[in-house]
Specification:
4-stranded mixed β-sheet, alpha+beta
């Protein structure tokens, strides 16, 4: 922007006590009300953090170096910043705020750093994994709306690790996607496919996020799970995962993804199920009924919760493009 056209208010003699007010003031000249609000809160919290912890120059520079290292590790198939957000609990918090769920609908979970857009579209019943060492798993699901009506044509993105706990994108010499697939729900809302039983695994801990976990005396493990992402116009975007009950890391997931409603028990296939879905009797079966909410339901609930949360802080807000901004009218 041409400096001669910028209107910058005069700054006071800057001190520890007034630097925040000055920064907020000079950042509040633009026309974007939401950006102004977000930056005002971000600056205020960051400055309060520095004041409360009496942050040293050495610690500040260590933080800069850490974030720089996080950026250097990121690639097209590894998002270290998402991993950092995950282990700090921010990913789950943002998803819970932006995609609130009414009672009896399927809750969200974390996306994780290894989702990709190269999954193949397959028909129901096809295997999603070619790992011969994995324990066979039959997955039988239904997708309904909040009124119990089956939802047809939902694009469902599914991904899981192999039996060693690695995603396909973690192999340098891979020749295509594996352990991931896209399937569309049938007219009756059914969804079924063949997979392998999920196993616990460590998140990537050879980079800066792993170093941070070690300094915090935290383990890097995730409990056994399978990822799901649901997309259909008119319905709120859902990113979630199903977790095997009784996993040793169920209560200490490194990225805070586990919720009680997402825990599942596996059952062996009886003869009827085995014949119907062409698997061996005794094959482990995962069953789950997903419930999606409409965009309208999610938007109304998000607006309501935003107003309540900010009113509790003493703020009067209005909703602009689905997001809260201060109501100064």
């Amino acid at each position: 922007m041409d400096p001669s056209k910028a209107h910058c208010p005069p700054m006071m003699d800057l001190t520890v006590d007034n630097i925040t007010a000055n920064t907020v003031l000079i950042n509040s000249q633009g026309p974007d009300a939401r950006l102004t609000f977000v930056l005002e809160r971000l600056v205020s919290h960051m400055h309060d953090f520095a004041r409360e912890t009496r942050l040293s120059s050495k610690e500040w520079m260590a933080g800069i170096h850490f974030l720089t290292e996080v950026g250097h590790v990121c690639t097209d198939v590894r998002q270290e910043f998402i991993l950092l957000s995950d282990i700090l609990g921010l990913s789950l918090l943002v998803d819970s705020i932006d995609h609130p769920k009414p009672p009896h609908s399927t809750e969200g979970s974390v996306l994780g750093p290894f989702h990709s857009h190269e999954a193949e579209h397959k028909e129901h019943g096809e295997p999603i994994s070619h790992d011969e060492n994995g324990e066979p798993l039959l997955v039988l699901c239904t997708i309904k709306d909040s009124h119990g009506k089956p939802v047809e044509g939902v694009k469902v993105d599914i991904w899981e690790t192999d039996s060693s706990g690695h995603y396909d994108v973690q192999y340098a010499g891979r020749d295509g996607p594996d352990g991931r697939v896209v399937i569309k729900s049938k007219h009756d809302g059914r969804l079924w496919f063949k997979a392998i039983k999920p196993v616990p695994y460590p998140i990537p801990h050879d980079g800066p996020v792993g170093k941070l976990l070690r300094k915090l005396h935290r383990h890097p493990y995730r409990p056994s799970h399978m990822h799901f992402m649901f997309e259909k116009p008119g319905y709120d975007h859902l990113i979630t995962a199903l977790y095997l009950r009784g996993d040793p890391y169920e209560a200490s997931d490194a990225v805070f993804g586990v919720k009680e409603s997402l825990l599942v028990d596996l059952q062996p296939a009886d003869i009827t199920t085995a014949e119907q879905y062409e698997v061996k009797p005794g094959t482990q079966v995962l069953k789950y009924d997903f419930v999606l909410v409409s965009d309208e339901e999610a938007n109304d609930l998000r607006d309501e919760e935003s107003r309540k949360a900010l009113a509790a802080l003493g703020w009067k807000v209005k909703i602009l493009d689905g997001l809260p901004v201060p109501d100064v009218d």
